[in-house]
From TrEMBL, chain A:
Homodimer. The chain crosses the membrane at residues 93-111, 144-165, 172-194, 206-224, 231-249, 255-274, 398-418, 424-443. The PAL motif is required for normal active site conformation. InterPro entries: Pept_A22A_PS2, Peptidase_A22A, Preselin/SPP, Presenilin_C. Pfam families: Presenilin. Coiled coil: none annotated. Its EC number is 3.4.23.-. Gene3D superfamilies: Presenilin. This is Presenilin. It is a multi-pass membrane protein. It is found in: Endoplasmic reticulum membrane; Golgi apparatus membrane. Keywords: Endoplasmic reticulum, Golgi apparatus, Hydrolase, Membrane, Notch signaling pathway, Protease, Transmembrane, Transmembrane helix.
Automatic annotation (TrEMBL), chain B:
The chain crosses the membrane at residues 17-40, 52-71, 102-120, 140-163, 175-196, 202-221. It is a multi-pass membrane protein. It is found in: Membrane. It comes from the Eukaryota. This is Gamma-secretase subunit APH-1. Signal peptide: none annotated. Component of the gamma-secretase complex. Potential subunit of the gamma-secretase complex, an endoprotease complex that catalyzes the intramembrane cleavage of integral proteins such as Notch receptors.
Length: 457, 232
């Protein structure tokens, strides 16, 4: 337990980063306002070209935010942009549904089968107050105190990260991220595997385990921090979100978990939308510098292919790059809980100006949506807790699942309407919490009685 | 079968998936409200009085049915608005999804959710040791539950189509027919464990609803024959 507690320090860091950064990420200004100018598109592509090494969409995000420096075109293009956005809207929602669903399924399956994650073996140092007290009031007070401590830890971490980013201590941030993802990938996977093997009574020797975990971890590190196939990267991100969520479910006491979920969504709302919120400042700073968001913090559903860019196009686009960069300053928004790229629209419109079509095909990137990993984690925590502690078992879990998905839908709809960064947590978590409590207390007795008489409604 | 329906017809198109989940959500909300009412009624009454409890249960069921239909209507209204929005925003002026498809998907959404809620705890328990009906209850509990759930899912699908069609063309009698059918099916389950009283009428009603929905959707005996004989 002691070693675990020590580790929890660093384990909190990734979670904090993820939570704060990711969930607070403001979606970049809806790309459809920028992307449809041929020149802008060209510039953005050249711009993207500069950003090699980032195989993930943050790079494309940079490219996306070509600015509305050409107001004339903008108004004419706006209608088309809206169409495009909504047309891709449904697809994007599904692109986000699938990973969220997968993550939740993994968490629920683990909770239901592996005993380890539902046993109470102590608490994190971030939640020092125990909930074993006899009186209700005391328990409530303890959970509120726990929540306050946790939230303040997250806020401090976020502000720290923002300061680091502001003062360009990139090496530090990268090192921190790498360290935390290392720990996640290796240590937590080891524990997880150990528990799964114990549950299913599978005999396993240390060398095999070492080999498996080494392979898993090494490939994971490469995929997340560097380049890798998109699906593999997505799968790894889902895995680590699920692992993180499992840790939370295990080590957070019950009432604290619910209160923390509620508080996190309020914090998310404030941090993203208030002008002085740390996350918003982070986003704006990133905007000014036209930089990608850190890897390993967001889930993106699409990828940019920088391979095979023909050199002649770069030369042609060189001069136009300057204007685009200058114009981009006011618009770029990397950190985004939800963010749609307008790559596709950009690549489509400059078709006539393109010298070779093969280049265009390579360039064409699917529009993607980005969702912060913290959001994944907290959604999964909610559903996992519902699965673990609800006495109505599957009904409650199912209800929470549907509620979260609907919340996600609504958030994406709002994103399409408002076209700016939005926190992804509040709506879904609110729905999830409401449905959990209502279903557990109201629907369950009803359904049980119905089922015992075999009545159908 | 319901899962097969889902995979083959809905999983391709993302818009349909969204409508499905939204339909499930609406059903869930209606269930929530009806269980709230029932809960209040139970708490306000005497828990020892068995006939009263059963009466309350029946009342709860009926009320829930009515609420479900009300929510179906609400969902219809929302989908109409959504279609107008989609038409306005689409490139070629026509909606990417027709109201009938929406009706179908909404019905499946309702059905899946109700089926899931009815069955899933049962399924989870079914993984345990096989002691069905030890206390003198019917031994066919699982089987009949499965069949009943399936028929209910299909019924919801057909009711969705019928209901939306009725709302579209303002044929109130169709809507009333759907409500009456739903009430009848739920009422027939009160005959349980006398299974013949509940399963048979339900299946008959389902067949009737299926034929009706098929005809409404533009099918005909000729189409069916052509399809079955694989004529091109």
């Amino acid at each position: 337990m002691i070693t675990f507690m020590n580790n929890s320090d660093s384990e909190e860091e990734p979670c904090n980063e993820r939570t704060s950064l990711v969930s607070a990420e403001s979606p970049p200004v809806p790309s459809y306002q920028d992307g449809l100018h041929a020149s802008a598109a060209g510039e953005s592509q050249a711009h993207r070209k500069r950003r090699t090494g980032g195989s993930r969409s943050p790079n494309s995000a940079d490219g996306d935010m070509s600015d509305s420096g050409v107001p004339v075109r903008e108004s004419a293009m706006e209608n088309e942009e809206e169409e495009l956005t909504l047309k891709y809207g449904a697809k994007h929602v599904i692109m986000l549904f699938v990973p969220v669903t997968l993550c939740m399924i993994v968490v629920v399956a683990t909770i239901k089968s592996v005993r380890f994650y539902t046993e109470k073996n102590g608490q994190l140092i971030y939640t020092p107050f125990s909930e074993d007290t006899p009186s209700v009031g005391q328990r409530l007070l303890n959970s509120v105190l726990n929540t306050i401590i946790m939230i303040s830890v997250i806020v401090v971490m976020t502000v720290f990260l923002v300061l680091l980013y502001k003062y360009r201590c990139y090496k530090f941030i990268h090192g921190w991220l790498i360290l935390s993802s290392l720990m996640l990938l290796f240590l937590f996977t080891y524990i997880y595997l150990g528990e799964v093997f114990k549950t299913y009574n599978v005999a396993m020797d240390y060398p095999t385990v070492f080999l498996m975990i080494w392979n898993f971890g090494a490939v994971g590190m490469i995929c997340i921090h560097w380049k890798g196939p998109l699906h593999l990267q997505q799968a790894y991100l889902i895995m680590i979100s699920a692992l993180m969520a499992l840790v939370f479910i295990k080590y957070l006491p019950e009432w604290s978990a619910w209160v923390i979920l509620g508080a996190i969504s309020i914090y998310d709302l404030m941090a993203v939308l208030c002008p002085k919120g740390p996350l918003r400042m982070l986003v704006e700073t990133a905007q000014e510098r036209n930089e990608p968001i850190f890897p390993a913090l967001i889930y993106s559903s699409a990828m940019m292919w920088t391979v095979g860019m023909a050199k002649q196009d770069a030369a042609a686009r060189g001069p136009s790059q300057q204007t685009w960069d200058a114009a981009e300053d006011g618009r770029e928004n990397h950190r985004s809980p939800l963010h749609t790229d307008s790559q596709m629209s950009e690549t489509r419109s400059p078709a006539p100006t393109r010298p070779n079509t093969s280049f265009e095909e390579l360039e064409e990137e699917e529009r993607g949506v980005k969702l912060g990993l913290g959001d994944f984690i907290f959604y999964s925590v909610l559903v996992g807790k519902a699965a673990a502690t609800a006495s109505g078992d599957w009904n409650t879990t199912l209800a929470c699942f549907v509620a979260i998905l609907i919340g996600l839908c609504l958030t994406l709809l709002l994103l399409a309407v408002f076209k700016k960064a939005l926190p992804a947590l509040p709506i879904s978590i609110t729905f999830g919490l409401v449905f959990y409590f209502l279903t557990d207390n109201l629907v369950r007795p009803f359904m049980d009685t119905l089922a015992s008489h075999q009545l159908y409604i | 079968p319901a899962l097969g329906l889902f995979l083959f017809t809905i999983a391709r198109d993302p818009l349909r998936i969204i409508i499905l989940i939204a339909g499930a959500f609406f059903w869930l909300v209606s269930l929530l409200l009806s269980s709230l009412i029932w809960f209040i009624a139970v708490k306000a009454s005497d828990p020892q009085d068995v006939p009263l409890q059963r009466g309350l249960l029946i009342f709860g069921v009926m009320f829930s049915v009515l609420l479900q239909e009300a929510f179906r209507f609400l969902y219809y209204k929302i989908l109409r608005k959504a279609i107008e929005g989609l038409v306005a925003l689409s490139e070629d002026g026509c909606s990417p999804i027709s109201i009938q498809q929406m009706a179908y998907v909404a019905g499946v959404g309702f059905g899946l959710m109700s089926g899931a809620f009815s069955m899933i705890n049962l399924l989870a328990d079914a993984l345990g040791p096989g002691t069905v009906g030890i206390h003198g209850d019917s031994q066919l509990y699982f089987l009949t539950s499965a069949f009943m759930t399936m028929v209910l899912i299909f019924l919801h699908t057909f009711w969705g189509i019928l209901f939306f069609h009725g709302c579209e063309y303002r044929r109130w009698w169709e809507i009333v027919a759907v409500v009456v059918m739903h009430l009848a099916v739920s009422g027939s389950t009160f005959c349980n464990p006398l299974y013949v009283g509940s399963l048979v009428p339900s299946y008959l009603l389902m067949a009737a609803a299926a034929v009706w929905a098929y005809l409404l959707s533009g099918g005909s005996a000729q189409n069916l024959r052509r399809f079955l004989l694989c004529k091109s």
